[in-house]
Write a structure and sequence with these properties.
Blueprint (H helix, E strand, L loop, with lengths): L8 H17 L4 H8 L3 H14 L4 E4 L4 E4 L12 H9 L30 H13 L1 E7 L8 E13 L2 E8 L4 E6 L3 E10 L10 H4 L1 E8 L5 H10 L7 E6 L3 H7 L11 H4 L1 E3 L13
Antiparallel strand pairs: 1-2, 3-4, 3-7, 4-5, 5-6, 8-9, 8-10
Helix pairs in contact: 2-3
Pfam families: BrxR_CTD (PF26107), WHD_BrxR (PF26109), WYL (PF13280)
Organism: Halomonas eurihalina
InterPro entries: CapW-like, CapW_CTD, CBASS_pafABC_assoc_protein, WHD_CapW, WYL_dom
C-alpha cells in the first residue's frame, strides 16, 4: 500500500481509534481494538502492526505498562488531534459514530459552522479521566475570572460534560467543599495525583447532579397563534409544549444551547421565539435576575 492507496473505511476507523486512545489516554492495547470492532486478538494485533508501519514514530511498546504508548514525536495521521474526538468517543459509549464521522458515508451538499478548537492538553485529559475512573484526588492549577493567573486546588472529578461549546469536568472542590463545574481549557500545567478521595465525594454523593429536572418550553406567547403553531412543529412540541429533562447543574447550559436567556427577554418575540413555562420550579437551579 502506498501513500495514494485509499484506505477502507473500517480500517480507517480502527486507525482513528488507535490514535485517539494513544493520544488522550496515553496507552492503547490490542484488546481495546478487538472489543470495539468485534474482531479477534490476532486481527487486532495485525491492525496495530499495520498502523505502526504507516506511522512508525507514533507508538512505542512499553513492557511495564503492557501496551503501546505515544512516542515523543507523535503526530496524528488519521485524526485531527482534537480533544472533542476523544470526549465524544467517551460519550458515545458502545458506538463509534461521533468521532468517526467523515468515513465516506456523509450526505452531499452539507455544511457545518466552524467552531473554535479549545486549547486542552492531552496530559490534562489523561489525568482527569484516570482520576474520575479510579476515584482519585487531583492537585490542579485552575484559572478563573476571579484569579486569571490560576490558583491551586484539590479536585475529585467524576464526569466530563460538553455544554455551551466547551468541555467541563464536574468535580468535588475541597476548597469550596462542594461540587462545581471546571472548564478543561482553564487548567494550567499537568494535574498531579493527590491520593484517594477522603470521603463521600464521588458521583453518587453529588446530590444536585443526581437530580433530574424538567425544563418546559413553549412558543413566545406574544406571537400570533399561526406563528406559535409553526414553532411547535419546529421543536416537535406536544400540545404546544416541549418538556426536556436534564441534570440539575446542566439546566442553565441547556437553556443557553436553546438560545433562551432566563435573565432577559428579547423585545422582538420573533427573535425570542420560545420561552420558559416553568420558571418558578427552575429557580433553585438558576439565579433569576
Amino acid at each position: 500500500m502506498n501513500a495514494h492507496t485509499p484506505i477502507a473505511w473500517d480500517t480507517l476507523a480502527r486507525y482513528r481509534l488507535i490514535e485517539i486512545l494513544a493520544l488522550w489516554e496515553g496507552r492503547v492495547v490490542a484488546g481495546q481494538i478487538g472489543e470495539a470492532f468485534g474482531i479477534g486478538r490476532q486481527q487486532a494485533q495485525k491492525v496495530l502492526r499495520r498502523y505502526r508501519e504507516l506511522a512508525p514514530e507514533n507508538l512505542r511498546y512499553d513492557d511495564t505498562r503492557h501496551g503501546f504508548l505515544p512516542g515523543p514525536e507523535f503526530l496524528p495521521r488519521f485524526t485531527q488531534g482534537r480533544v472533542d474526538e476523544y470526549l465524544h468517543l467517551l460519550n458515545a459509549h458502545d458506538t463509534l459514530s461521533s468521532p468517526f464521522a467523515g468515513l465516506g458515508m456523509g450526505a452531499a451538499n452539507t455544511e457545518s459552522l466552524p467552531m473554535p478548537n479549545r486549547s486542552i492538553s492531552p496530559q490534562v485529559v489523561r489525568e482527569v479521566v484516570k482520576a474520575a475512573r479510579e476515584g482519585r484526588r487531583l492537585e490542579v492549577t485552575y484559572a478563573s475570572f476571579s484569579n486569571p493567573e490560576g490558583e491551586d486546588r484539590i479536585l475529585v472529578p467524576h464526569t466530563l460534560v460538553f455544554a455551551a461549546g466547551r468541555w467541563h469536568v464536574r468535580a468535588y472542590c475541597e476548597k469550596h467543599r462542594n461540587y462545581r463545574d471546571f472548564v478543561l481549557s482553564r487548567f494550567r500545567g499537568v494535574p498531579e495525583d493527590a491520593g484517594a478521595m477522603l470521603g463521600k465525594q464521588d458521583v453518587e454523593h453529588d446530590e444536585r447532579w443526581q437530580t433530574r429536572v424538567a425544563v418546559r418550553l413553549i412558543p413566545d406567547r406574544r406571537l400570533p397563534q399561526a406563528e406559535r403553531d409553526l414553532l411547535a412543529l419546529d421543536y416537535a412540541m406536544h400540545d404546544g409544549e416541549l418538556e426536556l429533562y436534564c441534570r440539575g447543574p446542566l439546566v442553565r447550559y441547556a437553556l443557553r444551547e436553546l438560545g433562551v436567556n432566563p435573565h432577559h427577554a428579547e423585545a422582538n418575540p420573533r427573535a425570542q421565539q420560545i420561552e420558559i413555562a416553568n420558571r418558578e420550579s427552575l429557580a433553585s437551579w438558576i439565579l433569576w435576575s
